[in-house]
Amino acid sequence: MRRGASGKVGIDCPIDLFAPTEREIEQITVSINQAQSPAAKALLASELRCTVGKLLSCTAYDVDNSNCRLCQEVSRLRDRTAVLVERAAGLVR
Length: 93
Known about the structure:
two-stranded antiparallel sheet
């Protein structure tokens, strides 16, 4: 883990997959929060799950690397959150 210029602690990915994917995830999350309709939120949540899937399916995952373990755990939580957004949108339809 590393501390960035903003003071936030980040994940030091050994194959540099986390940082660009994290930026995509942050953009999609902002879009979900700004979306007005449940259908739009569900569509974006599906996109989020695909993006998070890049991290969850990382072939360089190393169980002995704390950065890898943290990346996987954060990614699983984001995937679960996206599933909840999809389900909640389905309830409104």
